[in-house]
Protein 1
Amino acid sequence: MKKLITAADIKNLVVEKKSVIYIDTKTIVTPAAQDEAKENGIEIVMDSASINKESTSSDSLNEVSMYSGVNSNLVSKIVEAVILQLKKNEQPSLIKEIGENGLIQVKGGSVTLETLEDGIKAKEILGLSDSPKMTAGIMELKDKPLHWVTKSDEIKYVLEGVLELTINGQKYTGKQGDVFYIPADTKVTFSSPKQTKFFYVISAK
């Protein structure tokens, strides 16, 4: 299961006076989290075990190429073609307009959810660099539960579908327009019978 590092997680490290966070190849660090880490001098380090594993896989591929007589120029051209195609498929950037009084408007049409894993998509639209006391975003669940422990107070607003929260064995069901407030340090499972999309706000500690 992939792990998501948000700007709120980086902010917590700042509070805890930590300067390094170790991640593995299955960890997703949001752009806002990367900005927050850079601003606060927190180093994001790939776990050595993951690097060694990737290096071993890479070495194996190199050996296969060498012994199969693959032309290095051909490989370079293939890589260039793949990179070009990826650039064509890049998702549009999030559009934010900032007023002189500090107001921030995010254009809804520019919000494209990113796949965290099969059945779970999310997009952080406001990070701690935008709003120091909270982060916000949109998440979508399809036929897959998300097990979570809140590190701080959270609010969920159901945009579409049915959102189910299970806390201490008790299930709470929210429909479009419903709002949930979840206190910090709550072990909760988010799920949906079919599909749901919700807006979330997470306060900073």
Protein 2
Amino acid sequence: MVLKSKRKGFGLEFKTIDGKDKQKYLVFKGKDGSFHTFVETEAKEAARQCGNPRGATTREMWKSIWKK
């Protein structure tokens, strides 16, 4: 029996934290200890802001954006 070593990845940790401003923040902690934040937004509105036209479902909009 041959055992394989476990993969070593980037080690990215993340949490969703509620801010005092009523926003939800997605916080990433890098392997080196650095922190990066993103503000949560409605997926459909974000897809519109990324250039996708109105009228499609949220999933259809993101599939179109993702392929670009």
Protein 3
Amino acid sequence: MKKIFYLFVLGLMASCSSPKYAANFNYYKSNSGYAGGYGELKTKETTIAPINSTELIASADEKTIILDAAPAANEERKTYVQMNKTERKALRQYLKKEMETMVKAKKGESVESVSSTKALEHDLKLAAIFGAVGVVGLIIGGDVFYIIGAIALLIGVVFFVKWLVRQ
């Protein structure tokens, strides 16, 4: 009985440690016979005309709105390398101020939200506890401890799956 159980646990561990897509049985091209030859895939042509983002307007009315003049184009911005020394200095000062305001805003967060993100969720805690009890029960051995270990592992797996479903 011990050997069978150890073999089962070993097989379970080996199957869980395999690569995610190891069992890929898709060795054929799904639409190779329909596209007129091997390697050519059917593509659907789009029937929608491209949308010009400068012409998009939102309105609650059902009447159409026609623009008389095109909106002004965005001015071309310089990259950091293209700026001169004074512009770079002004940009660095602006970025420092923005970073300070972001840090101040982050420090002002409530303690409850910070503590809730650092703590493990209840189901995950229970899964870890029951899993540890199960492993210890299996390591200790004996008829009673094997049963207790197996039941604790099953309960731990149930809590772990419950936690995974909620994620």
Protein 4
Amino acid sequence: MAKLCGVAVGALLLFLWAGPVTAQERGTSTVRLAMATAMCTTGPCAPAFNFRGGFTAFKKPRQPKLLTRREIGVMRLDGVSSSGPPLPTSLDGVVTARVVFSSTDPDSDCGDTGSDSVQTIATSSLKCRQKGPSSTSCRGTLVLGGAVFNDPDCTDVRVFLTDVVTEVYEDGGVGDDSKKIAQNGALMTGKTPDCNSGGPGCP
């Protein structure tokens, strides 16, 4: 049974490990997702806060330890600054994903067989240490949720993850977009408009 537990939860980390590195020539022991400013309809969700960089890194664990050791990685934001509110002393991180259980259950005892749901799979409490008069850096351990992939009756059912999203909020603000500071993504910088030819963005 312990071996089956490792296989089931290993499916979680197989997705997180293999998915983002398919363009690389060599494998890696972690998945590293860059963090970008969380954007809402009219601009940054929490415009009073900015940061220099950050990432979420999922460690590739050795089976079958995952069910007893729930720490799967780290989250961090570096150079967090504020244009008004005090610098944060802590932040909240959350990872959500669509969790899909296979419809095949060899012993027909898993209640989640064939289910498909979006849920929180891990959280992090990021503690901040001020690095200077106007910025702080925040880091926390990413912990798999206690109920996630922890049903012994489902350890023989394959699990797939899609739409993985990592987010960082102001302390106590999880779920409130106005307090969402960062989300996994990348900043894409466009080229300067060619105004000699009347390109987009020119007067």
